[in-house]
Amino acid sequence: MRIVEGKKHRELSPEAFAELAAGFTKVALDLGTGDGSFVLRRARAEAETLCIGLDAVAEAMAESARRARAKPAKGGAANALYIVGRAEALPPELAGRCDEITVNYPWGSLLKAVTEPLPDVLAGLAACAKAGARVALLINLAPFQDPEQRDRLGLSELDAEIAAERLTPAYEAAGLKITEIETLLGDLPERTSWGRRLVVGSGRGTLVIESKKL
Ligand SMILES: C[S@@+](CC[C@H](N)C(=O)[O-])C[C@H]1O[C@@H](n2cnc3c(N)ncnc32)[C@H](O)[C@@H]1O
Fold first, then answer.
1. Minimum CA distance residue for ligand 1 atom 10
2. Is residue 169 within 8 Å of residue 79, measured between CB atoms?
3. 203 Ramachandran zone, left/alpha/beta (phi>0; psi -120 to 50)
4. pLDDT at 56
5. Is 99 in the pocket of ligand 1 (CB under 6 A)?
6. Does any ligand 1 atom lie closer than 6 A to the CB of residue 91?
7. What percentage of the chain exceeds 70 in pLDDT?
8. Where are the beta strands (DSSP E) in the chain?
9. Does residue 180 register a pLDDT over 90?
């Protein structure tokens, strides 16, 4: 896997990753992590958890990856790991490793993959989870409410009712049991950078999907 360390990237071998992960009681993966600040905050708060942020865009994670490498007294967190990768081809080293997976405010191909959903991508995501792992998604509903934007992004209609009908069986086929679907207006369950940008003070709805790996 390709990992980000500030502006530089380097290869981390499967053996080195396994050795690193073995030093923690939990592994949490944030898919489509963006600027990685959510992962850095969590890593600072949970020293026993290996907190992994994965995104297709390495540059966006560079600053958080750089901060994570500082000494703990200066806000560093050696348990934060940033991986450059795509949801469509997740590193095989992650298979069956994660106790928790979050997908916060996805866009582009990731948004399409989790909402259509695209079975192969969803199965790849589910394959990273351990049995019983929590898989939680926060989805901005605004693009689904504008037919023009929906068409441009190649999305189908979506609200809590449609999600229950369309996503429940598809997620179950991928090995994920949906336990809760809820729409939040204005509330922000996770203060991620995009969550704050999209939701706070906007009245935009967030679809919360909680699921469990079977
Ligand atoms: C709106 S941002 C949200 C970032 C962060 N989760 C947050 O809440 O601040 C969506 C992120 O998803 C990433 N993304 C989109 N499609 C992806 C894919 N197929 N694989 C990995 N990351 C993807 C983008 O690069 C972007 O950083």
1. 106
2. no
3. left
4. 98
5. no
6. no
7. 100
8. 2-5, 8-11, 26-31, 49-55, 80-84, 98-104, 129-140, 176-185, 205-213
9. yes
- The predicted-structure confidence for 47-97, as pLDDT tens digits, reads as follows 999 999 999 999 999 999 999 999 999 999 999 999 999 999 999 999 999
Q: Which CATH number fits domain 1-94: 3.40.50.150, 3.40.50.300, 1.20.910.10, 3.40.50.11810?
A: 3.40.50.150
Q: Which pLDDT score is estimated for 103?
A: 98
Distance CA 179, CA 170 (A): 14
What is the distance between the alpha carbons of residues 21 and 178, in angstroms, rounded to a whole number?
27
Question: Bridge partners of 4?
Answer: 9
* CATH T-level fold of 101-214: Rossmann fold (3.40.50)
Question: Atom 11, ligand 1: which residue's CA is nearest?
Answer: 32
pLDDT at 138: 97
Amino acid (1-letter code) at residue 201: G
Asked if the domains 1-94 and 101-214 are classified in one and the same CATH topology, the answer is: yes
Measured CA to CA, the distance from residue 171 to residue 101 in angstroms comes to: 14
What are the boundaries of each domain within the chain? 1-94, 101-214
**Band (197; pLDDT cuts 50, 70, 90):** confident
Amino acid at site 11:
E
> Closest residue (by CA) to atom 26 of ligand 1?
34
Determine the distance from the C-alpha atom of residue 59 to the mean position of all C-alpha atoms in its chain, rounded to a whole number. Answer: 17
* Residue 200: per-residue pLDDT: 80
How big is the chain by its Cα radius of gyration, in Å?
Answer: 17
**Mean pLDDT for all residues in the chain:** 96
